[in-house]
Automatic annotation (TrEMBL):
Homodimer and heterodimers. Signal peptide: none annotated. It is found in: Cell membrane. It is a multi-pass membrane protein. Residues 20-158 form the Casparian strip membrane protein domain. It comes from Rhizophora mucronata (Asiatic mangrove). This is CASP-like protein.
Length: 192
């Protein structure tokens, strides 16, 4: 596949690429810091009182949130290192970043959304299934969990921006695949 812009705009594209590279590497470190802070906050989240004890590990959604934040933080570190290395971008590297950014964006979004739903039920309860509001009894736990989920959604916003950058880098730099002249698109028509 040929790179687009190989005509007279080479130096202009290099300047754009260089400035995007300088912005992308630090931007990939931001969700790492957010993921680690949300992870540590949730890992230390437990409360014991007269009603019993509650820990993040008691709820599957919060365990999922911890694992998702850890995976995203690790990916952010590795991808920042790879992006910071000065080397030519290839089609396979662009596709790899695009796909991984998409997968991790949706993964961390799912973890944050599921945890937010659990927090909603912990705050409001659900009388239809006799789930009482737990945040009245475990307020400190719910406050720390809410903070962790909010930090996670800041990380989601960073991953959305990274996904946009990786899709821009992929789809603006490389030409579309060349169609085979012998193959055409067949369109079915229906008689009415």
């Amino acid at each position: 596949m040929a790179m687009m812009g190989s005509s007279g705009n080479g130096s202009n594209e290099d300047v754009k690429s260089s400035s995007m590279l300088k912005a992308e590497a630090p931007l990939r470190l931001v969700p790492m810091a957010l993921g680690i802070s949300a992870l540590v906050l949730m890992l230390k989240n437990s409360q014991t009182n007269d009603f019993g004890s509650l820990s993040y590990s008691d709820l599957g959604a919060f365990r999922y949130l911890v694992h998702a934040n850890g995976i995203c933080a690790g990916y952010s570190l590795v991808s920042a290192i790879v992006v910071a290395m000065p080397r030519p971008s290839t089609l396979s590297v662009a596709w790899t970043f695009f796909c991984l950014d998409q997968v991790l964006t949706y993964g961390i979004l799912a973890a944050g959304t599921v945890s937010l739903e659990v927090l909603f039920l912990a705050n409001k309860g659900d009388s239809a299934i006799t789930w009482s509001a737990a945040c009245g009894s475990f307020g400190a736990f719910c406050h720390r969990a809410t903070t962790s989920v909010m930090i996670t959604f800041l990380g989601v916003a960073c991953y959305v921006v990274l996904s946009l950058i990786s899709s821009y880098k992929l789809f603006s730099r490389y030409d579309a695949p060349v169609d085979s002249p012998g193959k055409g698109i067949e369109i079915a028509t229906f008689q009415g």
